[in-house]
Every structure is written in structure tokens, then in C-alpha cells.
């Protein structure tokens, strides 16, 4: 008998030729996540089985697996050679102290086993009741479910605990994109959500030092570190926006300041995407949240780039975004006080329905290409990761 972890992954995406690549990537991501822990990972019949790990570290390992995209659940199980006698023995050893009702759920993949799943359910239910005569069998709403899986590899697995994982698709299965990372609540959540759909991330942060503080930059580095728990290593591009903001401030209408800032941010982001082979831009915009996030504003900012812009929280209420931020543990860092370059020069009445025509006209007062080029050339690059083992 040995302790193992059964890892369950999504079925929907496992069709056809992609299946092999999907599992290969998932396995690599799992092993990377568990670097520093000695363990073995095997694939058997649509499941991954992790074994030969230090049992004292099991809960740490489960916690790490819960951060791997593509896994749906982890079950802490025992594995032993299949025989009715052995199954009875192991089932009789399961502790049901303090439990009022239970059910056995057998999956018999090994059709040579002499009992059907239903027969096993009943038989093993009897084994449990012999030991716990006051326990109730409840098929529909039991307090405890004991799973028994009789597999074709001659092994049986027993488990009664299931740990939910993050779901999604394996990191890297969708390519790589650039997250516009501010110090707020929304953009780390946006990065997490796209990463969960299989995108690896790089991130860009615009700062306006000395108008914004060193602490504001430190905060963004901390946020990148926090999402790297899920998103793995992140290359963080730190780009100075000071000169650009000063020029916009001097040369453009106040009400269009944010619009033009955002158009320049997008152009710089697109340039970084081209240089770093990134396929899309990700932002934390949510429809109607502020003046720069109306449909018209987003159209005017989008019109300067020709790569996809993903806005995964576009339809989220602030409350919804906050609850994800709390779940992924970026919330506490995000709410620390900070100045963003967008807030430093915030106009009193930003335009709510800007037009492309007006933005283009105002931009004639700026040497956009030179500003973009200079910003990109002077970027600072940091590699952020969260390897604690
Ligand atoms: P967040 O909560 O993510 O900071 P926000 O509510 O402050 O967003 P905006 O300032 O309008 O909203 O920014 C919208 C999006 O633009 C952000 O979610 C982020 O993707 C991007 N963004 C804003 N400021 C910066 C910045 N300084 N550096 C990089 N991206 C930024
Ligand atoms: Mg926001």
C-alpha cells in the first residue's frame, strides 16, 4: 500500500492531437511547481498519479498543485494491489468517527474483477456498517463519500477527500501575452484570468517618477510576484512615462489627456509585443468603471494597435473583481495607497465619449514615434518569480 495523489484534469480539451501536447505541458508545469520536492509523476488512464513524495509534506504539495492551471482536482488516495480481500481490509480501516451518513462510490474499470460496481458499493457499505452500526447510508446527500476505483492496471485506489484546483488550461498552451500592470485591483486579476486560459505573461508597468514614488514601483513588483505564484516567471518591463505625460500636459487639451496617454501606452505595449513575440495585450478595464473605460474610449485607444486586446474583466462588477483578487491574494497589496501615472495628471473633466478624429488632431502636437521609441529604448527589465523551494 502506498499514499498517492490522483490528479484530475479537464476532459473537454483532450480531444485529438492536442491531447498529448496538453498532458506533456501539464506534467512539465506540475514538476516545475514541485521543484525542490522529490516525487514521481505518472500518467495512467486519463489521470496523473503523483507518488513517492514525503508524506509529511502532502498538504504543502496539494496547495502547490492547486495553483497549477489545467488541474481540476487533487485526491489524496491510497493505492494497493487489487483483490476483494485487500479492498475490504482497506475500507474497514477508514475512519468515519463523527460522521452521520455516508455512501460508497465504486468505479470498476477492470471488468475482470468478479463484482460489478453496484455489487461492490453494497458489499463495501456492509463492511463499513459492521464497524459503524449507527452510520446511515445516504445515497443523495451524504456527509462522506468513499471512492473506490478498481483500475485495469491491477491497482485499486481509495479516497474520501477531494481538493478543488484552479481549472483552466495548462500555462503556455495558448502562447504568451503582455499584461498592462498598474498597482490597482483590476489588472492583476486580469492577468490571472488570462493566464488561467493558458497564456504565459510578460507585464509592462508605466511609471512617472518623480511624480509617482519608488514605493509605487515596489508595489507593482510585489503584485507581479504574487501573480507569478500562478503564472510562473514574469518578465516585467518598467517604462518611464514622465516625459510623455509632461508633453501631453503641455500640448494637448486637458479633457483628452487620459485618452492620449492610453493611446500611447497601447502603442508602447504593441511595440513591446513585437520585440518580445507576444500575441496580445491584456488590460484590467471594466466597462463604465471610469471615463477612460467607456465603449467609445476603448474604441479610441484600440484604434492605434492592430493586435488583439484582451479585457477579461470587462463585464465584471468591482465586487466580482475584488473577490477574485482576494482569492488569489493580490487584494491586500493592491489596496495599499499608491499613485498611478494615470491619476497624477488626472483632468477634472475627462472626456467620456472621445473621438478618434479629435485624438488624432491633438496628437499632431506630439512626436509620437520619437516618444514611443525613447520609452521603449529606456525600459528597465526585471525577472519576477516566486520560487520558494
Ligand atoms: P487597475 O485597478 O488595474 O489599476 P484602474 O481601475 O486604475 O485599473 P485605469 O487607471 O483606467 O483603471 O487603468 C485601466 C487599465 O489600464 C489597468 O487595468 C491596466 O491594465 C492599465 N494601466 C493603467 N495604469 C497603468 C500603468 N501605470 N502601467 C501599466 N498599465 C496600466
Ligand atoms: Mg480599474
Describe it.
The chain is of the alpha/beta class and 389 residues long. It has two domains: 163 residues, VC0802-like (2-Layer Sandwich), CATH 3.30.2130; 210 residues, 3-Layer(aba) Sandwich (Rossmann fold). 39% of the residues lie in helices and 22% in strands. It is built from 14 helices and 14 strands. The strands form two sheets. Strands 2-3-1-4-8-7-5-6 form an eight-stranded mixed beta sheet. A six-stranded mixed beta sheet has the order 13-12-9-10-11-14, with helices on both faces. Strand 12, helix 9 and strand 13 form a beta-alpha-beta unit. The longest helix is centred in the C-terminal third of the chain and has 20 residues. It is elongated. The two termini are 29 Å apart. The site of adenosine-5'-triphosphate has 20 residues, from helix 5, strand 10 and helix 12.
Q: Could you tell me the radius of gyration in angstroms?
A: 27 Å
The backbone outline, from C-alpha atoms, is: elongated
Bound molecules: adenosine-5'-triphosphate, magnesium ion
The number of helices is 14
Encode the helix/strand succession as letters. Answer: EHEEHEHEHEEEEHEHEHHEHEHHHHHE
Query: Any idea of the CATH class of the largest domain?
Result: Alpha Beta
Tally of structural domains: 2
Indicate the low-confidence ranges by residue numbers. none
Total strands: 14
Structural class: alpha/beta
CATH superfamily of the largest domain: HUPs
Amino acid at each position: 500500500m502506498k499514499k498517492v495523489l490522483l490528479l484530475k484534469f479537464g476532459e473537454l480539451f483532450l480531444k485529438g492531437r492536442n491531447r498529448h501536447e496538453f498532458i506533456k505541458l501539464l506534467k512539465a508545469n506540475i514538476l516545475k511547481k514541485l521543484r525542490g520536492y522529490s516525487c514521481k509523476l505518472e500518467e495512467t488512464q486519463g489521470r496523473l498519479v503523483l507518488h513517492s513524495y514525503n508524506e509529511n509534506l502532502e498538504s504543502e504539495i496539494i496547495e502547490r498543485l492547486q495553483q497549477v492551471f489545467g488541474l481540476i482536482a487533487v485526491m489524496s488516495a491510497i493505492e494497493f494491489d487489487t483483490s476483494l480481500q485487500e479492498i475490504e481490509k482497506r475500507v474497514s480501516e477508514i475512519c468515519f468517527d463523527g460522521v452521520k451518513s455516508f455512501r460508497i462510490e465504486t468505479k470498476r474499470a477492470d471488468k475482470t474483477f468478479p463484482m460489478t460496481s453496484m455489487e461492490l458499493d453494497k458489499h463495501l457499505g456492509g463492511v463499513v456498517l459492521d464497524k459503524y452500526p449507527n452510520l446511515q447510508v445516504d445515497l443523495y446527500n451524504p456527509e462522506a463519500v468513499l471512492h473506490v476505483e478498481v483500475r485495469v492496471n491491477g491497482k485499486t485506489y481509495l479516497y474520501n477527500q477531494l481538493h478543488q484546483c484552479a481549472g483552466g488550461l495548462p500555462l503556455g498552451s495558448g502562447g504568451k501575452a503582455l499584461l498592462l500592470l498598474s498597482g490597482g485591483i483590476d489588472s492583476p486579476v486580469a492577468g490571472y484570468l488570462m493566464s488561467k486560459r493558458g497564456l504565459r505573461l510578460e507585464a509592462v508597468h508605466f511609471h512617472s517618477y518623480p511624480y509617482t514614488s519608488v514605493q509605487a514601483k515596489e508595489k507593482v513588483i510585489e503584485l507581479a510576484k504574487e501573480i507569478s505564484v500562478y503564472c510562473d516567471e514574469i518578465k516585467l518591463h518598467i517604462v518611464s512615462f514622465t516625459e510623455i505625460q509632461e508633453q501631453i500636459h503641455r500640448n494637448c487639451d486637458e479633457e483628452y489627456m487620459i485618452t492620449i496617454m492610453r493611446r500611447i501606452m497601447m502603442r508602447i505595449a504593441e511595440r513591446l509585443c513585437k520585440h518580445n513575440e507576444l500575441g496580445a495585450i491584456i488590460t484590467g478595464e471594466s466597462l463604465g468603471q471610469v471615463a477612460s473605460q467607456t465603449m467609445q474610449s476603448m474604441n479610441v485607444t484600440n484604434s492605434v494597435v492592430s493586435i488583439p486586446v484582451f479585457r477579461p474583466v470587462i463585464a465584471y462588477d468591482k465586487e466580482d473583481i475584488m473577490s477574485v483578487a482576494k482569492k488569489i491574494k493580490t487584494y491586500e497589496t493592491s489596496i495599499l495607497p499608491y499613485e498611478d501615472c494615470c491619476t497624477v495628471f488626472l483632468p477634472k473633466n475627462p472626456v467620456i465619449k472621445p473621438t478618434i478624429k479629435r485624438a488624432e488632431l491633438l496628437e499632431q502636437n506630439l512626436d509620437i514615434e520619437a516618444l514611443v521609441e525613447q520609452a521603449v529604448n529606456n525600459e528597465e527589465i526585471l525577472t519576477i518569480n516566486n520560487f520558494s523551494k
